[in-house]
Specification:
This protein has 391 residues and is an all-alpha fold. It has 16 helices and no strands.
């Protein structure tokens, strides 16, 4: 989840370096862990904190914006610089190696070793190992429950090079930046229209997990990519962006306020349910706004300054961010296992204990996944272009 490989250790003072993004990945993964810990322990229902814990599922949206920004930014650099883009096959190979090996190992062990999930026959094996479950309403939350978002990410990965090819066609002169902005605006509007269509028509709500329903969130991240590259190259509007960069805490205060509003003002159910139109659009776009505010200080401004950036670049936070994909894959299975072992007479651990112990244990498993599976797989990517040259 969350785009390109680790940004840790890169020089924060150079253009195109984003050392806070591992911290953002850690935040997103921890938020998703918290919502599932609250479901497993019942804390999501049993106290006032539950209305806030239920909304930490917004970590998925944060992952989507991170992907949109980090994956589209190299294309914007190529478009505005007049360079040929990374070949489509190379892009897809990188994405396949980033997502599938670790996912296959996790799914296999959780199904056939831990026996926490069951796959029935060849159909289930193809759908779940192929990350196709969101296209079947009877399987959408089967296998690894959280993997629905990986299916959506895969659809984005398949679509992005084709979209970039269309936007980058023709004369890449002064009008290219304008085309970039028009393009992301069209993506956002199309997704908004799709969501209206779901509500207006007799459409199975499971399609809300598909890419068109979430394309607006990826488009927000892509818009950040266009803004960051455009400002670097054109220099226009930098004063306003620099003002944002100098006050990262204000962005995060705005994100916190947005989180409180979406948690308390829309009477949202604490579990998955069919939402009213006001709840659906309120939750969706406030999640997007909150994620945007969280990311802004990681994109604009001096990356070595401010408490927010120091927290995001803290070694412990970065360590979680580097293995955040493994955390995302394994956290539910680990917490379910811990709850079985240490649940006591009532079979349920206290929320805080499960969240803390679960994060620690999941980190260790995720670290093993990173070292033994993800890192060796990424060595096969064969990217002919040095990372610094591609921003």
């Amino acid at each position: 989840m969350g785009g390109l490989e680790s940004q840790a250790g890169r020089d924060a003072r150079q253009p195109g370096r984003f050392p806070c993004f591992d911290g953002l990945r850690a935040l997103a993964a921890t938020m998703v862990l918290l919502v599932h810990a609250s479901i497993i322990t019942g804390a999501i229902d049993s106290n006032r904190a539950g209305e806030f814990l239920a909304r930490t599922d917004s970590g998925v949206v944060l992952f989507f914006l991170i992907s949109g920004f980090l994956l589209y930014r190299p294309y914007v650099i190529d478009h505005l610089g007049g360079r040929p883009a990374l070949p489509v096959a190379s892009f897809w190979r990188r994405r396949v190696l980033r997502i599938f090996p670790a996912y296959w190992v996790a799914l296999f062990l959780i199904v056939y070793v831990l026996h926490q999930k069951t796959l029935h026959g060849p159909g289930d094996i193809v759908m779940f190992f192929g990350l196709l479950q969101i296209y079947d309403p009877h399987r959408v939350l089967g296998g690894l429950t959280q993997a629905w978002s990986l299916c959506t990410e895969i659809a984005f990965y398949l679509s992005l090079p084709l979209y970039a090819w269309v936007i980058g066609r023709g004369d890449r002169g002064s009008g290219q930046l304008r085309r970039e902005w028009i393009g992301v605006a069209v993506l956002f509007a199309a997704s908004l229209g799709f969501r209206f269509g779901i509500r207006a028509g007799d459409i199975d709500p499971f399609v809300r997990n598909s890419l068109p329903a979430w394309l607006d969130m990826f488009a927000l991240g892509m818009a950040l990519a266009v803004a960051s590259v455009g400002l670097e190259r054109m220099g226009r509007g930098r004063r306003a962006i620099d003002a944002i960069g100098r006050h990262p805490a204000l962005c995060w205060m705005g994100a916190a306020l947005t989180f409180v509003i979406v948690s308390t003002q829309f009477n949202l159910p604490r579990h998955a349910a069919v939402l009213k139109a006001s709840q659906d659009f309120g939750e969706h776009y406030l999640y997007g706004l909150m994620s945007l505010l969280l990311i802004l200080p990681a994109v604009f401004g001096p990356q070595g300054q401010g408490l927010v950036r120091r927290v995001l670049q803290n070694r412990a936070v970065v360590a979680v961010g580097v293995v955040s994909y493994g955390v995302y894959l394994w956290h539910i299975a680990i917490m379910v296992q811990l709850n079985q072992w240490f649940g006591g007479l009532h079979g349920v651990m206290p929320f805080v204990a499960l969240a803390v112990l679960g994060l620690g244990a999941t980190y260790l498993v995720a670290l093993a996944s990173y070292v033994l599976v993800e890192k060796p797989a990424l060595k096969l990517k064969g990217d002919p272009t040095p990372a610094p040259a591609r921003g």
